Amino acid sequence: MTRHFGLLIGCLLLSGALGQPAQQTPTQDPRYYIPTNKLCYDEKNEPQRCVPDFVNAAFTRLFEVTNTCGETGPTE
């Protein structure tokens, strides 16, 4: 029993060490994302207020909006 437990722990540690996330850098849709050269620091290396570019995730996509969520009970 102890050997199986040790083997299980070893496998979990190995899988955690070798596991990779699905994407290390999220992909951006080039039609809606334009990289900027604006830095968050000025010429004196002082931090500046950074406001990311607005991305309208619903642009050119169809979706349905309702106000009935939970009206007749909890939703699944």
UniProtKB/TrEMBL annotation:
Residues 46-76 form the Laminin N-terminal domain. Gene3D superfamilies: Galactose-binding domain-like. Residues 1-19 form the signal peptide. Transmembrane segments: none annotated. It comes from the Eukaryota. Keywords: Disulfide bond, Laminin EGF-like domain, Signal. This is Laminin N-terminal domain-containing protein. It comes from Steinernema glaseri. The lineage of its organism: Eukaryota, Metazoa, Ecdysozoa, Nematoda, Chromadorea.
